[in-house]
Queue: 3 jobs
Job 1
Amino acid sequence: MNVDKVLDAKGLACPMPIVKTKKAMNELESGQVLEIHATDKGAKNDLAAWAKSGGNELIKHEEDNGLLKFWIKKG
């Protein structure tokens, strides 16, 4: 998967992962992919809902030893 930008949101509590994701997405062109690294368990539901409501696509997410990774494609 081609990633255009990586956002480190590790250690941030809600709502900061969403705030930082929104800011990072504003810097991308339509069709580009943002990879997000977070540790806040709430980010799983928050980012999925945020992506959908904003017309973006959550391509996939995975969890590895408490590290949550998300890939969101800008709509």
Job 2
Amino acid sequence: MSTAQATQQRPDSSLSLSERLRTDTRQDHDSAESNSFAKALLAGTLPREGYTALAVQHYFIYTALEEVAQSLATHPVGGAVYFPELHRVPALERDLAFLCGPDWRDTITPLPSTRAYAERIRWTADWPGGFIAHHYTRYLGDLSGGQFIKRVVQQTYGFDDGAGIEFYVFDQLGSLPRFKKSYRAAVDALNLDEAEQQRIIEEAHVAYRFNTEMMNELSGFVPAS
């Protein structure tokens, strides 16, 4: 390896952990947005059935996340991001009752990729640093790009009264930019050595891969061009 290559691959220790999570996963984020399912969702061309299928998968993912969050609520690392006001399962339950009907619990199943994703999240109950990676990747995405998705979904499916999009509504947080700043500060205040920070960043890449695999499985809902 050349000196230039070694310099390029060396972590930038001047950046905080939240900054590194954001910059080091930028390519993963861009790749996820180029997926055909994501492109159709963002363009407003995804049939309502496709949006409903996404909400179903979110239910299984966030159930796992919030189970682990509860188990790590008092842990010095995992508990740093324990914000019950972020939790999405109650909102997803209301969305699915609206989208699928009152018997929705009897009609939904996780995709194979979603099942593997949820299992990976539950595995991090024994590694709180890994839980931080998954928590950060999901919720910071919901608070950022997810707010654009909310507007697209409202316009595409006519969900004017909020039913069907409660997943993207964070009324309990107040100012979203202010909350995101405090969230990142909580992550950055963790006393983690370089090796552990690098493991967390690698797990964030894993989280993106699981999400992309899930969207690939959902691509059957994308209309033929």
Job 3
Amino acid sequence: MTTTIIVEGMTCGHCEQTVEEALEEVSGVTDVTVDRESEQASVDGEANVTALVEAVEDAGYTAYA
């Protein structure tokens, strides 16, 4: 299953990497693609959507499912 999360506040490649690493730590995630231009993160796996949003917010960004 692929889940798309809207991520606001990313301004550079380091931001993308930070969000990607935060999402990869969530249980059930198998793959992550982050694109700051579209303000989206695509997450593959069986992770809980609430956990994904919380991981992004804990990394310092605003997220919506």
